[in-house]
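Session log. Operator J.P. requested a structure for one protein chain; no other inputs attached. Running the standard single-chain path with token output.
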Amino acid sequence: MIDLLEGNMTDTQRPGIVSTKQQQIATLARNAPERVFSSLHHYLDYDWLHRAWELTRKNAAAGVDGQTAEKYAEHLEQNLQSLLCRIKSGDYRAPAIRRVYIPKSDGQRRPLGLPTFEDKIVQRAVVMILEPVYEQSFNSCSFGFRPGRSAHHALQYLRNHIMDEGGRWILDIDIRKYFDTINYQHLREFLDRRVTDGVIRKLIDKWLKAGVMENDVLSFPVAGTPQGGVISLS
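Structure written below.
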């Protein structure tokens, strides 16, 4: 019955329908920890993309095409329908990432990658599929980039354990330039363990190969993912 109604979803109904589908994915992943998902892209429909659009930041800086969220929304249904067709057919092309730098407290600069607005929607849509799968593998003490969790939650969890268990030491470790050094082959092998869906995997490969635009020069790194993209933080 849901499938018959999805084409006429209202803005208030859509989040619930998408959430229900995510719960279905989560249940499958939780009940079968060794399961490899070879068919996930059927969840990607118009309502799924519309929900991804709702969750995409509208005030972020534009990507290489200069398109703003406001401009994209002028023909939202048409744009999302076109986007859906390109994703399903394999014709979607991931645009290059626009690289900018922000200052760090130690005087260095952190490189950020800015996807186009439409690409952010696609990235968000894929994150919405992958999160329910991989969330089941995390322990409760893990907080980084997980839905509904923040640095404040991590600090509260740490404080509670120190108070309850009488901890005396805190070890602070940071992986230097982690995003810049991710090995593509290792990433693909990691994904092979749980997600082999062709549409999803092709999209991920397109993002890895999209290239980076900096000072009007396009380069194609052989390792690493740009910080700042929705998919790179998931």
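Operator note: Residues 143 and 152 are 10 Å apart (CA to CA).
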